[in-house]
Amino acid sequence: MSASGEAIVRLEAVARTYPGSVAALRGVDLTVARGELMAIVGPSGSGKSTMLNLMGTLDKATSGRAVIDGFDVASLRDGALSALRARRIGFVFQHFHLSPGVSALDNVADGLLYTGMSLRDRRAAAEAALVAVGLGHRLGHKPHQLSGGEKQRTAIARAVARQPLLLLADEPTGALDSRSGETVMQLLLSLHEAGTAVVVITHDRALASRFDRQVSMLDGRIVADERSVST
Amino acid sequence: MSVALRPARLNPLDVVRLAAYGLRARPLRVVLSAIGISIGIAAMVAVVGISTSSRAQLNHLLAALGTNLLTAEPGTSFFGEAATLPDASVAMVGHIPEVSAVSAVGQLADVNVYRNREIPEAQTGGMAVYAARLDLIETISAELAYGTWLNAATATYPTVVLGARAAARLGIGANTIGTQIWLGGQWFTVIGILAPASLAPELDYAALIGWPAAKAYLDFEGDITTLYLRTDPNAVEAVRDILAQTANPADPNEVDISRPSDALAAEAAADVAFTGLLLGLGAVALLIGGIGVANTMVISVLERRAEIGLRRSQGATRGHIRIQFFGEALLLSALGGGTGMALGAAVTAAYAALQGWPAVVPPWVLAGGTLATLAIGGIAGLYPAIRAARLAPTEALAA
Ligand SMILES: Nc1ncnc2c1ncn2[C@@H]1O[C@H](COP(=O)(O)OP(=O)(O)O)[C@@H](O)[C@H]1O
Ligand SMILES: [Mg+2]
């Protein structure tokens, strides 16, 4: 196991260039501590999603080093990377990505399919996670029967049901009205108490200011890395 | 750091659930693309089932009728004249130890049969008139459909038993037994109608009258045109070898000998050739069905990029994605194959019931159908599954 003292994410001079020489990241150094709350802000196209995907091991750096939970991503094969994601990383997307026609409970339980848990355990963990996000009364509802905020909370339940060390959310409130966005953001902030590092991309500076740490990006670089004075 | 990060194995039940989940989301498409395979498999099962049932029926028939019936006909003489066998040939053949029964008919040349005397003479209807020995019916295992067979008394009177087709042509049925028909310029009373005679189909078109009656009323001279004999089942070939010599010692080369059951057996064999053709057509349908499944799966992979990306983000390996889509193709194909086999068996059962045959679907066909179904699903699913697995997670999520 990785040393628990080590950072959950360590990016060292990471660059990512897409085919056609689009440089999405141009040398990023960033460390995310365990249990840390971090917001990433920056204009569209500044490389926020690219960096989040690298943290989540969905993508590999063109150069530099990405170390996640002590594992050097470049050295891992598909199976090991997938295992890393299955048990340690949770993703939340702007557009929820819920399966239509499948109940909230099964959407969440299905998200645990690749953890090696039995169907029973997956269902139990899913129910617990849905209760934790305040959707204990919506277990049997299909996505089309849920409001936007409830859909995103279901997606968050799906991400956290595996009890990840790292939760990555790419503009999770982008498709929501401000009220449901607020509920979702509060939920993400509360995960901190569970010891999960939470990294959230957001356009909303006001929302970002509620995180312990704000990283600003521009043109593939980190241009500011501020910490709120903790109260 | 040398900690092993091992991806979880999906248990088979989860793979089936995944495959079913994928199909359940698009039921119409599933039905449409399974139909091709379904039709192909149904066609093959039905074709094999029907031909097997028909062969079972023929074998049944052969077992019931026996394969030990031989016929001897005088053939034509060297000069092309229709020859006859001597009256004594019945007795001579009967003396062969392996021969258990002998009977004979003699065709009355130039004698025709009509429904009544108003019918023009040229309209013979292709029916022939025979003098028949009383033991004919047992020897050829024929059965009466209606009425009675000739007996020692009726054989001396102008009475007639009609073959199945002859009766139909003359318009005589169960209710008109006892009517008179115009035969060789005399009225003959119909006393019976034969069921179709599988071993002597020529008699289906015949009007059969008693041997003495033929002599008394129609100037029949007793010349035999066909000998029917039953042999010891183990000595059919041996009897065949000496039959010509025995039946017509004067001109053995003129005698034509045949074994009517051979024709039935040949029918079963001819069926096989026909079956081959239909099976080929079934295979084509199956191939098209396979292409349909592959097509459906390719489209499915394209449409479900976001789902693939999501699953990858949740820890699915390339292998997990591959097995999901591969399993889906197999399940799709299996649905088609399963309904196809049920359909083929139902068609076989219905057709056999209609024909009065025993319904037989050989197990090897079902095994073959299952194998073909899985092979087609596997081949059709391979490429889409590999494509799905190759998708980069970020690209899939961006879709
Ligand atoms: N798959 C890709 N292929 C090529 N270019 C890409 C791809 N993904 C992102 N980019 C480019 O990389 C840059 C950074 O993109 P992204 O990380 O999505 O920015 P953000 O999330 O901050 O809006 C953009 O210029 C974008 O056009
Ligand atoms: Mg983005």
From TrEMBL, chain A:
ABC transporter domain: from which residue to which, for each copy? 9-231
Report the transmembrane regions from the record.
none
User: Is RNA-binding one of the keywords UniProt gives this record?
Assistant: no
Molecular-function GO term, any one: ATP binding
Domain of life of the organism encoding this protein: Bacteria
User: What Pfam families has UniProt attached to this entry?
Assistant: ABC_tran
Q: Which UniProt keywords apply?
A: ATP-binding, Nucleotide-binding, Transport
Q: Which Gene3D superfamilies does the record associate with it?
A: P-loop containing nucleotide triphosphate hydrolases
What name is this protein filed under?
Answer: Peptide ABC transporter ATP-binding protein
**Originating organism:** Devosia nitrariae
Automatic annotation (TrEMBL), chain B:
Per its UniProt entry, which superkingdom is the organism in?
Answer: Bacteria
Q: Which InterPro entries match?
A: ABC3_permease_C (IPR003838), MacB_PCD (IPR025857), Macrolide_Exporter_MacB (IPR050250)
Q: How does it sit in the membrane?
A: Multi-pass membrane protein
Q: Which Pfam family, any one of them, does this sequence belong to?
A: MacB_PCD
Please list every transmembrane segment annotated in the UniProt record, as residue ranges: 30-50, 277-302, 323-352, 364-383
What are the residue boundaries of the ABC3 transporter permease C-terminal domain, all occurrences included? 281-392
> Does Transmembrane helix appear among the keywords?
yes
Q: Where found?
A: Cell membrane
Q: Which residues form the MacB-like periplasmic core domain?
A: 31-244
**The entry's keywords:** Cell membrane, Membrane, Transmembrane, Transmembrane helix
Q: What protein family does this chain belong to? A: Belongs to the ABC-4 integral membrane protein family.
What is this protein's name? ABC transporter permease
